Amino acid sequence: MNKDLSDYEMIAADFPFYVSINEVRHSFPAHRHDFLECSLVIAGEGHETINGIRHPMSRGTFTFLLPYQVHDIVTYSTTPIRLFNCMFAMELLVSSVKTGSPYLQALLAENQRPFFHMDSEELVKFEEMMHGLHNEYNQTTPFRNELLTLKLHEILLQFQRIRVSRQGMNAQEKAYPTGNGSIWPVIEYIHYHYRDDLSLSGLADHFRIPPTRLSIEIKKHAGINFLHLLHKIRIRHACSLLSATDMSILDIALEVGFSSYNVFGRLFREYKGITPTEYRLANLRA
Question: Do residues 69 and 42 make contact, with C-beta atoms less than 8 angstroms apart?
Answer without folding.
Answer: no
